[in-house]
Design goal:
By secondary structure, the protein is mainly α. It has one domain. It has 14 helices and 2 strands; from the N terminus they run ααβααβαααααααααα. The protein has a two-stranded parallel ribbon. It is globular, with a radius of gyration of 21 Å. The chain starts with 7 loop residues before the first helix and ends with a helix.
Length: about 325
Amino acid sequence: MQRIRWPSRYHRMMRLALVIAACAACGTSSERPARSWSDDPAARVAADERRTCPRPVLRGTATPGAATVELAALLAVGASSTSGELIAVIVQRAAAYETACTPFGPRTSADDGGATLAALRTADLAGSRAAVLADAGRLDDALALALDSVRVFQDLGRGPVTLLGAMVADAGEKKLIARIGEIVASHRVPADLLARTAREIDALLATEPPFADVVAGELDWLDLNAPADMLPTSRRIAREVAAACPPDASLASCHDALVARARERSRDRDESWRAAVRELAVPPLPPSDDATAAGAAAYLAVFPPYVERRARTAENLASVRRRLTPP
């Protein structure tokens, strides 16, 4: 299994260091926020946590309620078990619920290295179990499990989710999409099963979690973790990100707007900002005479790489879908 080196303490320290560096360099901004930011961060986070995250099930009748327990169980089992059969049972139970929100919210996030690796291990186990089923001639069960697993990893990024939580969900989804492609390419799949698989991939593509969920979750994380004296400036950063990426924006327009704003707000004169850039390997941005919220460029620059990866994952799934269409 490919290991992703995102140790918990290192990630927290680096993310807070970046926010602090950004805050140190921030000016003022006269732009109106694209989202109404409450004066009480805890109240806004609590409201976000009360959200439901409905999405259609891929087949059959939806189980009433939320997949909260199943998603938590999936991470717990992924951390301690090597049983693909057990993972398959939990995945398919979770995928059957009518609503499913991420467990990687601003209070309980993927910053815990154990949760990060458990999620990625779950993707490997589910994908391996699907391959075993396919090799045993159970193609219907294999593709159903693989597609339900993609749905569950979408759900890990659905609702207010931290940026790291969204990255974990995306990495797992990418693994499972590749597994679906392998099964279809290496087995003779009956036409009716190909047609059903195509319909279910269409449903997955139509219900990808919006990037606005990542913006909301990450900025809630900021409000909960930034030092109290820097909260006003962290909210200016929040407005920068939210203005660049409103809820109805596409991934492409989000990416372009974030890059443009990062360049617009960048100022190389502050050494703390330059140090944060070097540590995080963010490419240096050109100096700007714009004095408003200059330090926000540091945090803005973190988002575009994820948006690019998210767009590639969706394209990978669309590519598998195109291969299912008869010539």
